[in-house]
Each structure stands twice: as C-alpha cells, then as structure tokens.
Amino acid sequence: MMAGAGASREMDRSKTALVLVAVAVFMTAVHYLGLLPEVLFRVPESLVPPFAIWLDAIFNFVKDDLGLLKLTRTLTEGLEWLLDVTANLLFGKRRWPNLGPIPWTSVAAVGAVIGYYLGGWRMAALAGGTFIWTALIGQWKIAMETMSVLVVAAPLAFMIGLTLGILAWRKPWVNRALKPILSVLQTLPFFTYLLPAVIFFKVGPTAGAVATTIYAIPPMILMTTLGLQKVSPEMVEAGEMSGCTRWQLLRHVYLPSARTEILVGVNQVIMLCLAMVVLTAFIGMPGLGAKLLAMMGSFKLGRSFEIGVTIVLLAVTLDRMSKAWVVKQPEHFEKGTPWWKRHLMLLLGVGLFVLFIGVSQFIEVASTIGRKQNFSQGKEIDTLIKGFLNIDAVKATTGFLRAFLNVQVLIPFRNFMLSIPTPAFILLIVAFALWLGGKRQAVLAAIFFSLVAFSGWWDRSVITLYSVISAVALAMLIGLPLGIWAARTERWSNRILLVCDTAQTFPSFVYLIPAIMLFGITDIAVIFSILIFAMVPLTRYTIEGLRSVPEEMTEAADMSGATRMQKLWKVQLPLALPTMAVGFNQAIMFAFFMVIIAAFIGTQDLGQELQRTLAGTDLGKNFVLGICVSLMALTFDLTILKWASDQKKALGLGD
C-alpha cells in the first residue's frame, strides 16, 4: 500500500510539474507574439525593493553606531602582530622577532622529514621536492608571502570550527541555528567574503587572513559535529564508569573517538584556506595569487604556467600530507623506551633545520636564490605555448570551437534564456524542483528565485545560470562517458580516480590558465574553465557509483543473458544514479563557484558586478549579489540531494 501511495504521489507531482511547464511555455509564446504585458516580462524597477540601501543602513549602524569597526580594528592589531611574526620568519619582513627569513633549505628539509613521518619516502620526496622547486624557480618569496597567511588562517579556522562544532553537538538549538547559516556560507561567492574583510580589517594580508579563516570554518564545524555524533554509546559508558568528568569525557573519549572525522575537517580547512588565500589577490594580498593575477592580466602565459605549477604542487603536497595524517594511527612504545627513540623524527627534523641554518650562513645560495640564480624558464615556456597555439591544426580547432560554440550554441542559448519572462522562468525552476525533490523543494525554489527576481539583478542572474548550465551540460558529455568507460576495469578506475583526486586539490584560479591559453579572453574561455573544474566530480562519482553496484545484481543480469549495454542501462546506471547525483550536485556547486572567478576573464554576470564592488565600499550591493548566487545554488543543492536521498531509500541502499 505504501509503495502504491508513493507511486501515486510521484505521479501527481509529475502531472503538476507538467502543468507548470505548460503554463511557462504558454507565457513565453505569448511574449514572443508581443502580447504579454511588460509587467509580466520583468519586475518593474518601481517594484524592486531597495535591498542594497537597507543592508547598507544596517551595516553602517552595526559598524559605526554599535562600534563593530572599533572592535575589529582592535582585533586587527593582534592579527597583524601574528602575521608580522610569520612574515618575518618566512620571508624576512623586518618586524619582531627579527629572526627571519628561515633559509629555504631548512624549510625543505623539515618538510621532507614530516613527509617521511606521515607517508614514507614518496611523501618525503613530494614535500621536499615542492619546496626545492619553489626556491629554484625563483618563487620562494611570493610563495612564503602566501604561506605566512595560511599558517595563521588555518589554525584559526580549525580552533573556531572545532569549538563551534562541539557547541553544535552539545546544544541541539545551536546545531539548528548553525545549519542554515552554514548552507548559505558554503554557497556564497568568495567576493562576498572579501569586501567585508577589507572594510573591517584593512586591505592586504590582514583582510586576506580574515576572509580565508571565515571561508574555511564551515567544513570544520560539520565534520566535528558528525564525528562526535558517531561516537558509540559503549565508549561513553566505559568512560562514565571509570569516573570521568564531562571535560575528561570530551578530552579522553569523544575527541579521540572522533579523530578521523576531525582530521578530515582539518584537511578540508587546509585546502579551502589555500584556495581562498590565492583568491585574496583581488583585495591586495601579496603572494602567488597576486603574481598569477598580474601575469595572466599581461598575458605572460609562461610565467603564469610556472606559478600555476607551484600552486598545484603546494596544494597536492598539503592535501596528501593532511590525508596521510588522517589514516596514520598514533604510535605506541614499550615502557622504558628511550626518549630519543620515541621522538626520533622530531630530533631529525630539528637537527636538519639547525644544520641548514648553519650552512646558509656560509653558502648564500642555501639561504636565498637571487633573480639571476634561479632556473625560471618563463620566457621560453611562453614562446613554446605561443608556438603551439600558432600551429595550424590547433588554430583551426580552437577557431572552429570559438565560432561554432559561441555563434551556434552558447549565444543563442543565452539569448533564449534571457527571452523567457521572469514568472515563466520561475515556474520552470519550480517544476524541476517539484518533479525531482517534492513539494518542500518546490516551495523553496519559488521563494528563492522570487527573491532573485525582486533583487533588481535578474538578467545578470540568468546569465550566471546560463554559464553554469552550459558548462555542466558540456562537462556531462565528456565526464559521464569517461567515468562509464573507466569503471569497466579496476586498473583504469584507479588511474582516473587518482587524476580526479589530484585535480580536486588544484586551486580554482589554476583552471583559468588553460582556458586563457586556448581561447584568450572570450566567452568560451569562461565556459571552458568552468567545464574542466566541474568535470572532476562528475567523472569521480560516476566511477564510484558504478563500482558500488552490488555484484549479485550484475551476476543476475549476466545469468539472464543481458548484453553489456543492456546490463549498463537496465541494471548498473539505475543503481548508480543516486551516487552519480551527488556528482551532478557537486558539479553544479563547483560551477557556481567557478563562474564568479571567471569574472576575471570578462563576463556580464553577477561575478563581474561583484568584482566591481571590491573597488568601493558598497557592502549592501555586494551582499545582494552574493545572496542571489547563493539562493540559486541552494535551490539546486537541496533539490538534487533530496532526490538522491529518496532514490537510495527506494533502492534499499540506505540514506
């Protein structure tokens, strides 16, 4: 009976969704005939509430009247002191403690020792090699400018996230209050973090550290709460029976038991910090991001490529080392083991650190590598890249893609989306949410997109959505077949998953480099950069979904005489689809994130407007634009995840 009722509800939802689509199509057709009143095509400016003015008034009241600016500027002094210390130690800023800069050889040696401790010789080679590359290629100072902020922001994000995660676990009302806030924070475009940081914490490293910290907090909260909730009652009972206080239970039972989830949170914090600290170049933060921005702006592709490689190496190194920390179990020694044996790696690290400091006092190149001593090949790489792009076959291919995709596909699709009346567009989104997610998702979609319509930025929002849909659709055409093909064998699955894991560690800025190289500053470069960023989760979750199909199901299909194609379409894909839906969802979220970064290339969407707000103090407009992006992203996020959850339950795969 319940299955029948569920099928009936699904049928009703589908019928209602079809009616909504029919109404939207009818309204669009009436508009094409020139019979639709202008008020039903776009919300008249007279009806658009002045959200930006209201928000500016609230921000000014909080900033000036309540004294938040004075408080943040006081906090800035402490944060500046911390940043001055790390800057002095890492790249030689002349501030207290006046000990720096630490020689690059010492940093590389310590990195190699930590890598060996966490993952053996391969990890040691990766960590040490990354720092050696950075120094030899002449990028040590700018890399350390980035790292000086990262080593402050990541621990701050960890401590704040851990504290709030424990509070959310202890107090259900805190958890309920934080969930919607975290959902919005995770979908807000990064530009929305930057302007408040500039206003309240000054331009440069301080604002960069604040924006980076806030951006990286949400996953730490979520993973801490998840880990503490999963602690088994038996472990807690054992702690209580041994007479532990609440604090002792937390310290000695809950936190050690949730160690894996907490360290996964640490990994995500580090990666988000690195991604954001590169993007803070837009607010005057020096380092790798600022140099990359300058090189790309002047179309110096060779130097951009070198800096991109450095950013990728740092990202991969930090990712691999933090993941190795997650799986590494604490070491235990027999009673009476000498202190030096228990801390051999620590002593080795300290010894090498001191040794290379001593060496650098006598050998200058062991301390710093000057401009004329480095091995940068920026000009040569630039010549090679431009030579490659001038090959007739390459020029013909990129020229054809530019002409065909722009003229025949992308521009007509964008114009079509802009031609749809606002109420009809909202009905189409609501129909999608109703059909896929249900009534609650449909109501939320109606509310969210209506707010976007009344924001005064509807056309810019539609262009943003056009970029996202176009890029994800093209990514599906490449990523899904690649994932299906790779899932056929264990060897190719592991290879492609390794590529996906590595690609997911790349800071998003890096994806602009191949797009600009191939297509210059054009619309197709925007779509291409989003496409390659969004293709990674699509491919990854397609492989994982197909590999997670129970063997007995595929064996039953084989025994019934199904061909490989029949088995794929009738058995494997239906069972893998809930997992693949997570990939679709992540691809859309990645696309919304990347479309804002692609504003650097030059777009006409919300990202371009957000970038313009950084030049002033228009905080109200900045938040309105950011919330528009967040509301659109949340609509798809909630709808697709609800569908995936429902499908898993229907297939008996668990939630």
TrEMBL record:
Keyword terms of this UniProt record: Cell membrane, Membrane, Transmembrane, Transmembrane helix, Transport
Record membrane topology: Multi-pass membrane protein
Localization, UniProt: Cell membrane
Predominant location category: membrane
Gene Ontology molecular functions: amine transmembrane transporter activity; carnitine transmembrane transporter activity
UniProt entry tagged with the keyword Metal-binding: no
CDD domains: TM_PBP2
One of the GO biological process terms: choline transport
InterPro entries in the cross-refs: MetI-like, MetI-like_sf
One term under GO cellular component: ATP-binding cassette (ABC) transporter complex
PROSITE patterns assigned to the protein according to its UniProt record, in alphabetical order: ABC_TM1
Transmembrane segments: 16-35, 101-118, 125-143, 149-169, 181-201, 207-228, 262-285, 343-363, 416-435, 442-458, 464-487, 508-536, 575-602, 623-644
SUPFAM superfamilies, per database record: MetI-like
Domain ABC transmembrane type-1: 143-322, 461-640
Domain of life: Bacteria
Recorded family membership: Belongs to the binding-protein-dependent transport system permease family.
PANTHER family cross-referenced by the UniProt entry: GLYCINE BETAINE/PROLINE BETAINE TRANSPORT SYSTEM PERMEASE PROTEIN PROW, GLYCINE BETAINE_PROLINE BETAINE TRANSPORT SYSTEM PERMEASE PROTEIN PROW
Protein name from the UniProt record: Glycine betaine transport system permease protein OpuAB
Organism from which the protein derives: Ascidiaceihabitans donghaensis
